[in-house]
Amino acid sequence: MNPHVFLGAIALVAMLAGGCYRSHGLDAGDLSDGDLPDSRVRDSGSGDGARPDGAPVDSGHRDSGFLDSGRPDTGAPDGGLPDGGVLTRCATDSDCSGACVRAPGVAAVDLARLDLACGPATAASSDGALCDTNADCGRGLCVVAGSCVAPCVVDGDCGPRQRCTELWVRTSSSALQWLNGCVDRVNAPPDVHVSRGRAGVVRGADTPDTLSLAHAPGTQVMVLEPELPQTLYASRFRTSETPAVMLFDAEGYAGDGPPPLAPFGTPGPVLSILMPNGPRARRSPAGYGLDLYSDSRTPVFVTSMSRERIGHTLDLDLFYVGARGLAPSGDRGPARIADALATVERVCARFGVRLGVVRQHEIVGQLQRDFAVIEGTSDGSLPEMPELLRLSAGAGRSSVSLFLVREVSLALGVAGGIPGPESIHGTGSSGILIAVDLHDPTADDLGYTMAHEIGHFLGLWHTTEYDGSIYEPLPDTLRCPRSLDADGDGYVMPEECAANDGYNLMFWAGVGETLSPQQSDVLAHAPLLY
User: Fold this and answer.
1) With 0-12 CB in 10 A as exposed, 13-18 as middle and 19+ as buried, what is 249?
2) Per-residue pLDDT tens over the stretch 436-484
3) Rounded to an integer, what distance in angstroms lies between the CA atom of residue 495 and that of residue 263?
4) How far is CA 173 from the centre of its chain?
5) How far apart are CA 354 and CA 258, in angstroms?
6) Residues 232, 302: Cα–Cα separation, whole Å
């Protein structure tokens, strides 16, 4: 099928997607539907988040109440010691009189579970600090997203504002190994008010369940996460006042009619809502009602972040995933990436924001090979995307994560949400894919793609869609109607819309860098800025 025809068919659902594709000048989209099944290698049977162990299964004996990383031993339980009786094995600090640390002297095995052993109590002193290598952390545990972590089994092993999740540690130039570790649930700037609570239960039925969401002053991002990994589907969003005002109705949206007052991306592994996302959004001190579906019954938690002032600095985390052999270097990466970031910085300056600290991380080994090319399905979804974006867990600060891959099916860039889960790392929506190898290396379009997808992640929609239909809720943005499709090919192109919004950063083709005042205002109020 002609890719333009295919993209045209799925672009009509772009508003209902948790992200946006910028594909060779064409945006379309539909986020993947949640977690992936286990990958091609047997598990150890330890409930390890559907990750392979990278080694034969254990003989069936458990060491100190937990499996020994899938590594075969002599066939008998060893009383908490590895074969040879040198170290005391551990899974958390509670197994030790000191701290649970990376076991010394163990060979790196790509994709294997990381061996842990008891060490000195002082090893825990660097927990939560940012790091570049394992040597920066007392425990020897610097996760690939760049922070020192403590190991865990369940959330109760972590601090009150943390969660226990699967993380990856680089153990050689070609090996990443996993463990369960503690990371912050939210990494918002200090002046952002954060609250988290249970919003209710979604039954997984044919009819939606209504969740009540509280209003907060200032700009508010509400991130809904299911307790059991699955996809959330929003149908309606309205104020709780009397009479209620309908802010978003996915089931009643006609595609080319007036845009909703407060659109947001759905479905996805998490669901994020931005209020207000422009002057048309009706704020309600009485709160909001959200009609929500899910694949099966699950409790749903909501994290609300709000702030009344604007931010001035945007930090980025770059993850190199096999793109053209690129790897971390310098302060802002190799020349091609540094040049693209200069474009991002120039665009940011238009809404009064500077580009701050850029941290760089490299995905190596089999994970790099698995994720360097993100393939799509016939329905336009990207099943590998959520698992890759989860590698942002442990970034340890308020930032946007950009994953620099070689290719994405029919896309130059894809944002994890509109908006994304700002300041929340490690979810299936926590970041942006950038298909580096599909960009012209002699042009500036890589920087435009980065800036365009950051705009989506912070809450901006396309000013005009590919066929002249309009999704943008901001009244001051120019639009390009179908009547300007001069060649009648069904696509309004930047040059056809040059006098309108063809060179706006958020035009569907994303080849410009202008912004309207209201677009700039939405971006400047993003709670993840500081």
Assistant:
1) middle
2) 999 999 888 999 999 999 999 999 999 999 999 888 889 999 999 999 9
3) 28
4) 25
5) 34
6) 13
Helix (H) or strand (E) holding 17: none
Q: How many CA atoms lie within 13 A of 357 on its CB side?
A: 8
- CA dist 408 and 146 (Å) reads 25
Burial label for 335, CB within 10 Å (0-12, 13-18, 19+), is exposed
Q: What is the rounded distance in angstroms from the CA atom of residue 435 to the CA atom of residue 414?
A: 9
- Tell me the per-residue pLDDT of 222-255, one tens digit each, with 9 for 90 and over: 999 999 999 999 999 999 999 999 999 988 776 5
Give residue 440's region: left, alpha or beta (phi > 0; psi -120 to 50): beta
How far CA 435 is from CA of 199, 317, 341, in Å, comes to 36, 16, 15
Residue written as token pair 């309009």? 470
248-282, pLDDT tens digit by residue?
A: 998 877 656 678 999 998 899 999 999 999 999 99
Going along the chain from its start, the domains and CATH numbers come out as 3-30+310-463+496-524 (3.40.390.10), 50-185 (no CATH), 198-307 (2.60.120)
Tokens, residue 176: 């990443």
DSSP one-letter code for 461: P
CA distance 392 to 428: 9
Contact between 72 and 83 under an 8 Å Cβ cutoff? The reply is no
Question: Which of 103, 137, 130 lies closest to 119, judged by CA?
Answer: 103
Q: How far is CA 241 from CA 154, 224, 282, 311, 495, in A?
A: 40, 21, 11, 30, 45
- For residues 352-384, b (16+ Cβ closer than 10 Å) or e, as one string? ebebbebbbbbbbbbbbebbbbbebeeebbbbb
CA distance 280 to 425: 30
417 vs 529: CA distance, rounded Å: 17
CA–CA distance, 38 with 51 (Å, rounded to integer): 6
Whole-angstrom Cα distance, residue 464 to residue 50? 40
Query: What is the C-alpha separation between 71 and 75, in angstroms, rounded?
Result: 11
Across 139-151, b (16+ Cβ under 10 Å) vs e yields bbbbbbbbbbbbb
Strand partners, 388: none
Asked if residues 364 and 173 have their Cβ atoms less than 8 Å apart, the reply is: yes
Length of the chain: 530
Using DSSP's 3-state secondary structure scheme, residue 182 falls into: strand
Per-residue CA distances from 164 to 23, 49, 254, 359 (Å): 36, 11, 42, 23
Helix (H/G/I), strand (E/B), else coil: 257: coil
Q: In what order do the strands lie in the sheet with 193-202?
A: 193-202, 298-307, 219-226, 271-275
